[in-house]
Specification:
The complex is a heterodimer of chains A (299) and B (519).
Chain A lengths: L10 E6 L3 H4 L9 E5 L9 H14 L6 E5 L8 H11 L3 E4 L5 H17 L8 E6 L2 H5 L1 H5 L5 E6 L1 H7 L12 H14 L2 E4 L8 H14 L3 E4 L5 H8 L3 H20 L4 E3 L2 E3 L4 H13 L8
Parallel strand pairs in A: 1-2, 1-8, 2-3, 3-4, 4-5, 5-6, 6-7, 7-8
Antiparallel strand pairs in A: 9-10
Chain B lengths: L10 H7 L33 E2 L2 H7 L7 E4 L9 H11 L5 E5 L9 H6 L3 E6 L4 H8 L7 E3 L2 H9 L7 E6 L1 E2 L5 E2 L14 H6 L2 E6 L19 E4 L6 H4 L10 H15 L8 E5 L3 H17 L3 E8 L1 H8 L3 E9 L2 H6 L5 E3 L2 H5 L13 E5 L2 E3 L4 E2 L15 H7 L2 E5 L3 E2 L2 E2 L1 E2 L14 E4 L2 E4 L4 H6 L10 H12 L7 E10 L5 E8 L7
Parallel strand pairs in B: 1-10, 2-3, 2-6, 3-4, 4-5, 5-24, 6-9, 9-10, 11-12, 11-15, 12-13, 13-14, 15-18, 16-21, 18-22
Antiparallel strand pairs in B: 7-8, 16-17, 19-20, 22-23, 24-25
Helix pairs in contact in B: 9-10
The chains are: A alpha/beta (299), B alpha/beta (519).
């Protein structure tokens, strides 16, 4: 398996791939992933210019460990194949397919990525795929989309188009997104891939943004798409385990390991009843803390 | 001759100006001199009013003639009408060879170019120039030498007699018929008249120009009637919209916010951040944001500021409103909130001399703990350039940059690593305006460099989680992104000098020449 499939992706920051000023150094804000956009942010007659700028950015800029995901144009357009060739040649880490509605869509992208890797003599399987789900049909087929390709590391909800398809709109309350969020995160967990939430575009309402992130964190999402670097710290703060959580999880892991050897199944840690069912959750917290760079212990 | 910042100062310029090269910040410490003085015309038996009919009449009464030096202030910033009104009249009278000695000149003064070209104005002394005057000087149109000097440096030059002001014009938001001027009130409210105070004391003739004549006495006067010869009333002395604007909305640019956060973190981790500290900051987005974030930490830790100095803006005045600072010392107000704050009894007006002159018995900049500044360029020797643009054209002002940088215990310069596509951190600045010995820390969006001469600061930051780098590393990152910039191509003729605050020559500015490609 490509080791990058499970990497930390709390934040994915959208950037117009055509804007050199934006794509020259977004790593200074330290998002986990960058979403270099060839789709909606780029005018139809500027697609080639955007690809040119994207290719040279990917080739020449050291993004200091930030994952470089390229959002290609949809499969209904004449642009997506050339987008993939250019992004793969540049050395991107992943392709984001918009408007995914079926496993077949993912497979088409997979084939094009494989062909591009071959064409540019790159190791096969390096470039990953993520699928953005933007319609009711896509949401209902989330499970098959998640299982469509070995390259697929996750699915992402695109709230704007999805709510239009649902005959509603973004309200800021999250009510209109509830079903899709729940369905997608369950499908992702069931298939072992990651799940990412839609953007929050009201930059004047940082409190609303915080509440939105807290909600999706509790729902089980792995991260959120963002549109401005000011949103990064809030997401990272919410998605990074607190010191208290880390200490507790560390105790749980150590105690379960110890008690298991002693043949004890149920015991208490800091007054809370603990059994083996807590083990994976505690391990995940430690892993997330490690990936977030806040865990200095030896587990 | 090579000066202390490694700049070659041509012998003919030293000869022409009678100046020394820059020897270091403290070269004149302890220097003794006798102050110059002004002529004073005694008014014993007046008719009770100094109001006269026009600027023309004032010029005639003051004995305007070829070769005189005229003083102006820049409290009206880009809204100033005074300089243009006076110079239009001087021009009409056919007077030539005038030296303008202004605290600063800006884009509002573009019309002066015509008078530079026809020889009405042959010398300019200012904190800086922007717009078309800068272009004219850099293109060699000024007959004499432009002198760029700091706010403290202007007071020094006048008090030592290096410059003698024949007539100074004081744009006064309010004035009475006997010449008591105040920066407060009227249509062109600018808060304070700090830069003019030295003009009041040292100019042979002082003319107050106002668009708001108020009944006597206009007290407490910022410039006293005892120093004013004539009062002229005109329709408008400035454009209020451009004098003091509404407070700038705090920046939402993450790059600036990030640099502001680095700055605040640096400040709070120095030994100077303790109850009773002092602070000054500029008007840039990152500086203002750092004042806002610093005030939060002050509140959390229960730390009070003893005094803040300005160039003031709303966030500094908010510290006063929120009772986080004991006093504000004010030389200039940049927004309406600062102008309004002047009424507060803990908000003190100070003169430019009190603020920054190196040639008195101690200026308040010497008591500063922190100053947060911006720069156009800073080089690996920490020398800053705040006057000459990357195209070689004079396009900025020293202001109080060299004064506060020299005075403060911790001088922090904030700049994005790249200004557009030009590296702001470079091997050698185009022109040195503030010497590296004054600069302690450079904060960029890519990291922070501490001047190696400040081993104490390096030591106290060793466990602080900030992205520290050497200044050379910052330069290398900038060059790796934008490429190593080619040097600006200048001609031979020196068109201006950058004066150190003590009157020595920090650097020269040469005439620009069209770029010539070479492989």
């Amino acid at each position: 398996m490509n080791p990058n499939k499970k990497r930390l992706r709390r934040t994915m920051m959208f950037l117009n791939a055509q804007k050199p000023g934006l794509i020259k150094d977004p790593y200074i804000y330290a998002p986990d992933s960058l979403m270099l956009d060839l789709e909606d942010a780029v005018a139809e007659n500027q697609k080639d210019a955007a690809r040119f700028s994207l290719y040279h950015a990917l080739k020449n800029i050291d993004y200091k460990g930030c994952e470089r995901v390229v959002r290609i144009n949809g499969l209904e357009t004449p642009f997506w194949q050339e987008d993939i060739r250019c992004a793969v040649a540049g050395g991107c880490d992943a392709i984001r397919l918009p408007k995914t509605e079926s496993a077949g869509d993912v497979k088409k992208v997979e084939d094009a990525v494989t062909a591009a890797e071959k064409e540019f003599s790159l190791p096969e399987g390096r470039v990953l795929i993520m699928a953005a789900i933007e319609s009711a049909r896509g949401v209902m087929r989330a499970m098959e989309i998640c299982e469509a390709s070995e390259r697929l590391f996750g699915i992402a909800l695109s709230g704007g188009d999805y709510t239009k398809d649902l005959h509603t709109h973004i309200t800021g309350t999250g009510i209109e997104l509830m079903g899709a969020r729940q369905n997608m995160v369950i499908a992702a967990r069931a298939t072992g891939v990651q799940c990412f939430d839609t953007v929050y575009t009201d930059l004047d309402n940082m409190e609303g943004f915080r509440q939105d992130v807290e909600t999706i964190h509790l729902m089980g999402f792995d991260g959120k798409s963002i549109v401005n670097p000011r949103q990064i710290n809030i997401v990272h703060e919410i998605f990074t385990p607190s010191e208290k959580e880390i200490i507790f999880s560390e105790k749980v892991v150590r105690e379960i390991d110890k008690k298991r050897a002693e043949g004890i199944g149920v015991f208490t840690v800091d007054g809370k009843m603990i059994d083996i069912a807590f083990y994976d959750g505690a391990k995940r917290t430690i892993d997330l803390a490690k990936a977030s760079g806040v865990y200095k212990g030896d587990l | 001759m090579i000066n202390a910042v490694g700049r070659e100062i041509p012998e003919d310029i030293l000869e022409m100006t009678g100046k020394e090269v820059f020897h270091g910040n403290n070269y004149f410490d302890g220097h003794v001199f006798q102050k110059a003085g002004a002529y004073t015309k005694c008014v014993i038996n007046s008719h009770g009013s100094k109001v006269i009919g026009s600027i023309h009449e004032a010029l005639v009464k003051c004995g305007i003639k070829d070769g005189m030096t005229l003083g102006f202030h820049h409290h009206f910033r880009d809204g100033d009408y005074i300089v243009n009104m006076v110079m239009e009249e001087v021009h009409k009278m056919g007077i030539k060879d005038i030296t303008i000695c202004a605290s600063s000149l800006g884009k509002a003064h573009d019309p002066l170019v015509e008078y530079i070209e026809d020889g009405t104005i042959t010398n300019i002394q200012s904190s800086g120039v922007r717009g078309k005057i800068g272009e004219a000087i850099s293109n060699g149109k000024l007959k004499g030498l432009a002198i760029m000097r700091s706010h403290g440096g202007r007071v020094r030059a006048i008090e030592t007699g290096e410059v003698h002001l024949d007539i100074s014009f004081i744009g006064a938001p309010t004035c009475d018929d006997y010449g008591n001027c105040r920066g407060i009130g009227g249509k062109s409210n600018c808060g304070v008249l700090s830069y003019s105070m030295v003009d009041g004391d040292y100019a042979d003739h002082v003319v107050a120009i106002t668009d708001c004549l108020v009944p006597f006495p206009n007290f407490p006067a910022h410039i006293s009637m005892t120093k004013v010869d004539y009062v002229v009333v005109v329709d408008e002395i400035g454009d209020p919209e451009k004098i003091a604007t509404g407070a700038a909305k705090p920046t939402t640019d993450m790059r600036k916010l990030m640099m502001a956060d680095y700055c605040t973190q640096f400040v709070v981790n120095t030994p100077y951040f303790k109850d009773g500290f002092s602070y000054q900051t500029g008007v840039g987005g990152a500086s203002i944001a750092s004042t806002i974030s610093l005030s939060k930490i002050m509140k959390e830790r229960g730390i009070r500021m003893r005094f803040g100095i300005g160039g003031l803006t709303k966030p500094m005045c908010d510290l006063l409103i929120n009772d986080q600072v004991d006093a504000l010392l004010d030389t200039q107000d940049f927004d309406l909130a600062a102008v309004e704050s002047v009424k507060d009894l803990r908000h003190f007006r100070i003169s430019a001399g009190q603020y920054a002159s190196p040639f008195n018995k101690g200026a308040v900049v010497n008591k500063l703990d922190f100053v947060i500044l911006a720069t156009l360029e800073v080089d690996v020797n920490f020398n800053c350039n705040v006057v000459v643009g990357s195209d070689g054209v004079i396009t900025g002002a020293q202001g109080g940059h060299p004064d506060t940088a020299a005075g403060a215990k911790c001088t922090i310069v904030i700049t994005p690593l790249l200004q557009g596509r030009t590296p702001a951190v470079c091997t050698e600045v185009t022109t040195v305006t503030t010497p590296g010995e004054s600069i302690d820390v450079v904060i960029t969006d890519y990291g922070i460099a501490i001047n190696p001469i400040r081993q104490d600061l390096i030591e106290c930051m060793k466990d602080v989680d900030l992205p520290f780098k050497t200044i050379e590393e910052l330069r290398d990152i900038a060059y790796s992104i934008a490429g190593k910039p080619q040097k600006v191509q200048f001609g031979d003729r020196v068109v201006g000098i950058i004066e150190g605050r003590d009157g020595t020559i920090m650097d020269v500015v040469r005439q620009i020449k069209p770029f010539e490609f070479s492989e």
